[in-house]
């Protein structure tokens, strides 16, 4: 039997979790046909699918703006499929549920006194900590993610802040980049039900690298502040900055080296810490009817825009204005620093 591919067929190769997957389509196939094949053959529902196409095309995800986009226009381009299968999502949800379930306290063993050891500190560190660390097992190198989570848990500054504020978190886990990334922004962390579960974006969007350690640690400070305050109001930001200062002050190691120096793919501009604390598994946007909550967007120039109750379009516009302002200031500073004519 002839198994060769007809000359007029379209062949696309996708990369998913670091592995290439090849599909063959008829010449008139569209991006909607690609989504159906991924759902049926890879068990990744359309809701979880994101196709990062480079160069130029950018992010495509169902429901597509143009479902009739011909697949022939994607031939020869690099296509990165980001998305989790139903089984992977179910496994993660089961893990979160188990970690959040009430636990029976085990028997407390009597401590043996020893000189020059602060046993009160030892007991507090055992109580006020992250009791379970869980990487995502279906992503590459979960053991490396576990070491990253252990480093955060054992960070001298983080441990001191946990004791000071009496934070006890049942589960600290990593975030799947594909689940919280859009063409406009990416979420850095999540806090569910005032510290029941904290998720952190450890990896780059392509899963093949890790973000800077100090950036992730700062995101963790942000999420720990949500243990007390949900909305991004004045109370929240005062506590967040306080925790950041305490972590820096009590980090006797004076920081550490970065884990992974890879950057995000081109086309992504904005980063969002989060959207306030989770309640019942749903996002609760910061701020009240008359308050000043909301999200803070960190733009690619390093500046911040207080979102308040603005729409996404307004947030992006303000971020663009901030970048233009910084560019003008840099240009003026460059002209002002030139040498005077002799």
UniProtKB/TrEMBL annotation:
Residues 316-334 have a biased composition (Basic and acidic residues). Pfam families: WLM (PF08325). It comes from the Eukaryota. This is Zinc metallo protein-like proteinase. SUPFAM superfamilies: Ubiquitin-like. InterPro entries: Ubiquitin-like_domsf, WLM_dom. Residues 121-325 form the WLM domain. It comes from Paraphaeosphaeria sporulosa. Residues 316-342 are annotated as: Disordered. GO terms for molecular function: proteasome binding.
């Amino acid at each position: 039997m002839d198994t060769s591919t007809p000359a007029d067929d379209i062949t696309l190769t996708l990369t998913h979790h670091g592995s290439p997957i090849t599909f063959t389509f008829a010449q008139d196939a569209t991006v909607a046909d690609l989504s159906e094949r991924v759902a049926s053959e890879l068990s990744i529902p359309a809701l979880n699918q994101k196709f990062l196409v480079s160069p130029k095309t950018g992010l495509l995800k169902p429901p597509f703006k143009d479902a009739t986009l011909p697949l022939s226009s994607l031939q020869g381009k690099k296509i990165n499929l980001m998305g989790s299968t139903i089984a992977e999502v179910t496994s993660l949800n089961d893990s979160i549920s188990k970690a959040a379930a009430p636990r029976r306290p085990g028997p407390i063993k009597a401590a043996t006194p020893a000189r020059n050891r602060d046993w009160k500190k030892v007991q507090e560190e055992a109580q006020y900590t992250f009791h379970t660390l869980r990487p995502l097992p279906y992503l590459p190198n979960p053991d490396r993610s576990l070491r990253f989570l252990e480093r955060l848990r054992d960070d001298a500054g983080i441990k001191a802040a946990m004791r000071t504020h009496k934070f006890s978190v049942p589960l600290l886990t990593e975030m799947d980049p594909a689940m919280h990334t859009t063409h406009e922004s990416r979420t850095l962390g999540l806090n569910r039900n005032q510290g029941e579960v904290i998720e952190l974006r450890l990896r780059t969007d392509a899963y093949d690298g890790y973000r800077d350690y100090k950036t992730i640690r700062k995101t963790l400070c942000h999420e720990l502040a949500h243990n007390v305050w949900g909305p991004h109001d004045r109370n929240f930001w005062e506590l967040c900055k306080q925790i950041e200062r305490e972590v820096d002050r009590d980090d006797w190691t004076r920081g550490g080296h970065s884990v992974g120096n890879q950057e995000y793919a081109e086309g992504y501009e904005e980063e969002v810490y989060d959207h306030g604390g989770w309640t019942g598994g749903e996002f609760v946007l910061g701020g009240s009817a008359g308050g000043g909550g909301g999200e803070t967007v960190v733009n690619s120039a390093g500046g911040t825009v207080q979102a308040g109750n603005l729409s996404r379009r307004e947030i992006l516009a303000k971020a663009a204005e901030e970048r233009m302002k910084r560019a003008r200031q840099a240009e003026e500073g460059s002209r002002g620093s030139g040498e005077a004519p002799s």
